[in-house]
Amino acid sequence: xxxxxxxxxxxxxxxxxxxARFGGHAYDLHRHETYxxxxxxxxxxxxxYRGSLRASHGGQVLVLHPDEPHDGxxxxxxxxxxxxxxxxPAAVSEALDGAGPPYVADAVARDEAMASAVAEAFVDxxxxxxxxxxxxxxxxxxxxxxxxxxxxPRRRRGSVALRAATRARDFLVAEAHRVVGSDELExxxxxxxxxxxxxxxxxxxxxxxxxxxxxxxxxVQAMIAEGTALSEAAAAAGFADQSHLTxxxxxxxxxxxxxxxxxxxxx
Length: 267
Prior knowledge:
The protein is an alpha+beta fold. Helix content is 44%, strand content 21%.
């Protein structure tokens, strides 16, 4: 029997949790617009990241930066299990009083404080986290990321640029069911499209376009897990057709929508 499995909760304000196990190949090359903070429970998970092959053994913590391509597969031992939190860089910046998202160069490490925080986040999984618990976890991980960062202290961004980028981000969340034009974002933010793209990436770690596509794909992900047909999910999220959805879904999550359906529905 194939033991591969994924369990994912619905995203809350700044945080989403995933628990998974794989016996071989897990994900093709893909990237998220969030931080990925994970704890390997057993086995060895290997992944290509920033030009080299990394390996996380049981008990180790991995930190993946927003918009960094990576894949995933089992290393020696043949099977691995892990827990992963997807953390919104905007929430991290807010928790750090407006400083830019910290960069952690060491993708894999023994980090007891982070491992403990991941374990705390999964105590009642997949039961939904209460709002105050989410706030506490986001603040805790923001501090831990800042401590792990090997760069100089990040300065606060200008309030005008941050407000403009946040207005654009909020608009993209609200309009995630359709394609948004550059002129619309210019009007909402008050910045020209090139300045907005620069400030948006500095604030949130990704581009406006990639952020919006990610929002739509998370809706699709939840619909598929609940049994919605792929063609219906594609249409509901504003994709031209199922093949259009498949290309974007695979680039975002490293698996096809069909494989995601099988993994997420398996008990």
